[in-house]
Amino acid sequence: MRTYIYSISFVLILLFCGCNKYNQPKGSQNTVNNLALFCKVWGFLKYYHPDVGGGIINWDSVLVNNIARIQFLHSSDSLKQFFDEIVPQCHETFHFQLSDLEDSIVYDNASVLWIYDTNIFSSKTIKRLDCIYHNSYEFESNYISKNEWVKNPIFDQDTFCNQIPFPNNKIRLLSLFRYWNIINYYYPYKYLTDVPWDSVLHQFIPKFYNATDAIEYHLEVCKLTAMINDNHAYTSSNIIENKYGNRFLPVKFQLVEGRTIITDTYSDSLAELNNLTIGDLIYKINTISIEDIRDSMHIYFSGSDSLSIQNTISYFLSRSPNVSMQLDVCRDDSIFSVICPTYQRSLLSKERKKKAQTKTIKRIDEFIAYVDLSKLNYENVDSIISQMLNYKYLILDLRKNCQFILYELCDLLYAEQFIFYSVTTPVYNKPGLFSYRIGDPGGPQRYNPSFYKGELIILIDEETQSIGEFTTMALLKHKNSISIGRPTAGADGNVSLITLPGNIQTYISGIGIYWPDGKITQRCGIIPTIITNQQLQSVANRQDDIMLKAIEYAQSKAQSSTKNIEQIY
Q1: Residue 359 three-state SS
Q2: I need a surface site. Which of 39, 55, 405, 445 has the fewest CB within 10 A?
Q3: Is 243-353 assigned to CATH 2.30.42.10?
C-alpha cells in the first residue's frame, strides 16, 4: 500500500482551493520567467521522481505553497537556493538505456537540456536532476496510468482541487502547469503545434493568474487547449456550457465558399415553421455580422486548421442560452429577418433521430451499391456487407460517425492480413519519449476466398474524424480503392481525458497514428483521390456532390469496362 503524507477534508480543500485574496506582484517579466521555470521543474519531478510521482510527497501542495515565494526571487543566487531546497534527493537504481525498449525507433518529445543551465541551477541541483533523469524508476504513479491495450495515457487520478468552479490564483496556476506538463511529456503531436510549447507557457501564466471571475478563467483554459491544434481537444465545463447555452436553432450551419449557409436541419417541420430552409445564407445573428462572430470565437476552439475550427464554430452558432435568436437571412437575393425560437437539445435529438431513419444500403444499379457505414455495428456488419460483395463498385460512406467495426469489415473485404498504420505511444518509465512500431494488421488471419474483388469507393469529408479516419486508412489499403470528397479532419488516435481545477474537462489525441511509412495524418487529414469541393448552389439544390461524383465515377468505369468486353468479342 502506498503512503500519503496528507489527509485533508473537503472543507479544507474548499478553503485552500477557493480563497482568492492573494494578489500577484504586477508587471515583472522576471516573475513570469520564475514561474515558468518552477512549472518545468515541478512537472519534471512529478513524472520522474518516485517519491513525488508515487504520492509520498504532496507535490501539488509543494507547488501551491511556494508560488508566492518564487515570485519575489530576483537574484540568481536566491533562485539557485530555492531549487536546492525544492528538488528531492535522487535514488540511484540503474541507468536507462534506449535498448531497453521493445520497439526499435524512439523520438524525444520533451528536451530536458534546461536542467543543465548553470545560470539557473547550482551544481548540487543539476547533479540531482541529472541523476533523476538518467535513472529508471518503476513506481505506481499517483498521477498517471496507461490503457494496457491501446497504451494511451489515463489522467483520472490527477484530481487535486478539481471541483471548485473558480479556484484561487495559485490553483489556477496549478491548472496551467498540470496541463502544460501533460502536453509536454505525453502529447504525441506536440511537435506539430503552431506555437512553440515553451512560448505558450509564458503567454498564459499572467492570463491564468489574473483571471477576475469563473467565466474568464474557463475561457482562458479554452484558449490554452486550442493551442495544441487538435480536433480532439474539445473543452467543456458547466460554466462554459452555460455561456454558450443548451438551446439550439432547428437548423445546422456550415461555412461554404466563405459564406455561412444552412446546410441541414435538425427538424424539417420546425425549420419550415420558422421560415428557414436549406440554402439560406446567414448574414447576422442578433444584429452582429457573422464574420465578426466567427472572428471573436476563433481563439476558443482547437482544430487542425482554420477550416476545422470554423466547422466547430458553425455548430456553436446555433447554440444560445436565450429562448430565441434573430437571424438576418438572404434567400434568392432577398434579405429578411427572422426571430427564431431555440429548442431544448433533447427535443431536437428526437427530431434528428426521426430524420436519420434512412436506408443503410442502396442499390444504385446492377453494378453499384452504397453502404452508410454509420449504420453498421458489430452485430450487423457481417450480414450487410456479405450482401454487397457481388457488386462491381461498392460505395462506402464515412462522412458520419461510425462505430469501431473496421477489423470486422476488413475480415470480409480482404483476402489476407495487411498493414495499414503505424503508431507512437509514450514510454511510461521515461516521460517525453515515444516508441514507434508498426500497427496491428487488419484482414482475416486465414485466407478468405470470398474477399471483395470489385472496387471500393470511400466517401470522406471534414466530418470524417478519428475512428472514421482510421477506418479510411484501412479501406484505402484495398488493392482496388479510391476516396472521393474533401480532406478529413486530421485528428487520429485514441483520446485521453484531462480534468482541470474548475471541473473543466478536455481531451487530447493520446497516441500518434501514422501511415505504415511514417507519414502523418494528424492536422493534414487524409486527402481524397478525387477532391469534390462543396458549392453554395449545390447546397441550395440539396445536391450531394460527393455522392454524385462517386456514382459518376463508378458508372463511367462500368461503361468503359463493358465497351472493352464488347471490343474483345
Answers
A1: coil
A2: 445
A3: yes
Q: Are 367 and 392 in contact (CB under 8 A)?
A: yes
- Give the C-alpha separation, 317 to 142, whole Å: 40
Task: Locate the domains of the chain by residue range.
Answer: 10-142+167-186+194-227, 243-353, 358-564
From 40-49, 132-141, 291-300, 308-317, the region with the lowest mean pLDDT: 132-141
**Cell representation of residue 102:** 521493445
243-353 and 358-564 share one fold:
no
> Rounded distance, CA 60 to CA 67, Å?
11
Residue 396, pLDDT > 70, answer yes
- Condensed to tens digits (0 to 9), the pLDDT of residues 423-468 reads 999 999 899 999 999 999 999 999 999 999 999 999 999 999 999 9
Render pLDDT for 104-161 as a digit per residue (tens, 0 to 9).
567 778 899 999 999 999 999 999 999 999 887 778 899 999 999 999 999 999 998 8
Question: Does residue 280 carry a pLDDT above 90?
Answer: yes
Q: What is the mean pLDDT of the chain?
A: 91
Cell of 112: 530536458
Q: Between the CA of residue 66 and those of 34, 61, 142, 359, 422, what are the distances in Å?
A: 11, 8, 21, 62, 43
Tell me the CATH number for domain 358-564: 3.90.226.10
Query: Torsion angle of alpha carbons 226, 227, 232, 237, nearest 10°?
Result: -40
Alpha-carbon distance of 477 to 463, in angstroms, equals 21
Q: Which has the closest alpha carbon to 231: 330, 114, 310, 296? A: 310
Q: Which amino acid makes up residue 45? A: L
Grouping H, G, I as helix, E, B as strand and the rest as coil, residue 91 is: coil
Could you tell me which residues come within 8 angstroms of residue 452 by beta carbon, excluding any fewer than 6 positions away?
Answer: 388, 389, 394, 412, 413, 414, 478
Q: How far is residue 13's CA from residue 151's CA, in Å, rounded to a whole number?
A: 32
In Å, the largest CA–CA distance within the chain is 92
pLDDT at 180 over 80: yes
Q: Which residue has the cell 475561457?
A: 219
Provide mean pLDDT across the span 166-173: 97
Helix axes 306-317 and 290-297, enclosed angle (nearest 10):
120
